[in-house]
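Quiz preparation item.
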């Protein structure tokens, strides 16, 4: 190869690399930030004190470009205010993968619009059975957990000032075997909540993980949306804590597929 051709090849390669990083900047930034954040949260005493390991699959377990490659960890104590009881919680969660520099979580035409899956690990500080009323689960209190998650952790972090969520129970099934354990309670419900769809109006910390929404005007930011939701609930007596798996999506097919192909393959130790 002549010197001129080498020079041309170098510049073509350099331009392609620059284009790649521009197009994928949001995704690459998200991967770095969330891997560091998840490592910090997963290795923190707040999580290790639970004494439980939950290997929840990420998007890499399927050949499709569907979910974010890795699940993320977040430790939280703010849930106590919503439950009315002092509690510690870790959320292990995932959302739609990236396309065009942002998560499909934002994309209203995507099957992964406003979709999440994962699990809540919750342990009461004073009351180990804080999610029960007598011998039964207290679904009014349990519904406060996804409500807190969507309103406080997701929507407000994006700039939605007054989010609101309403959940209606559709069906309940007890004694379900799931993720290698029996005695789960399966709950299907319908949720009405503000969507994450909004126009860019200044940087928000949540954009580090989800990417930045499109910078174009919307008639109604954070408009209301109807979602399908599924939850599996179990109290682990030996650990004195609850594990609550969850899936939410406007698309029933996405919910069912995520349940059977991803979430059900979780390993609990």
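Solution:
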């Amino acid at each position: 190869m002549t010197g001129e051709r080498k020079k041309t090849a170098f510049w073509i390669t350099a331009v392609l690399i620059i284009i790649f990083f521009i197009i994928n900047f949001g995704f690459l930034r998200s991967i770095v930030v969330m891997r560091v954040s998840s490592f910090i949260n997963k290795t923190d005493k707040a999580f290790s004190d639970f004494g439980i390991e939950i290997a929840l699959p990420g998007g890499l377990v399927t050949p499709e470009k569907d979910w974010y490659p890795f699940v993320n960890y977040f430790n939280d104590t703010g849930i106590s205010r919503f439950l009315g009881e002092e509690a510690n919680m870790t959320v292990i969660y995932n959302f739609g993968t990236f396309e065009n520099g942002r998560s499909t979580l934002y994309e209203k035409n995507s099957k992964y619009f406003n979709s999440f899956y994962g699990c809540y690990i919750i342990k009461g500080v004073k009351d180990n059975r804080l999610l029960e009323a007598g011998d039964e689960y207290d679904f009014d209190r349990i519904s406060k957990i996804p409500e807190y998650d969507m309103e406080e952790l997701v929507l407000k972090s994006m700039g939605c000032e007054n989010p609101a969520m309403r959940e209606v129970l559709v069906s309940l099934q007890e004694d379900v075997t799931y993720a290698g354990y029996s005695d789960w309670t399966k709950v299907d419900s319908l949720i009405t909540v503000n969507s994450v769809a909004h126009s860019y109006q200044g940087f928000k910390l949540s954009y580090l993980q989800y990417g930045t929404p499109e910078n174009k005007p919307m008639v109604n930011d954070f408009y209301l949306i109807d979602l399908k939701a599924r939850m599996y609930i179990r109290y682990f007596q030996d650990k004195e804590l609850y594990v609550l798996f969850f899936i939410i999506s406007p698309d029933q097919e996405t919910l069912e597929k995520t349940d059977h192909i991803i979430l059900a393959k979780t390993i609990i130790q």
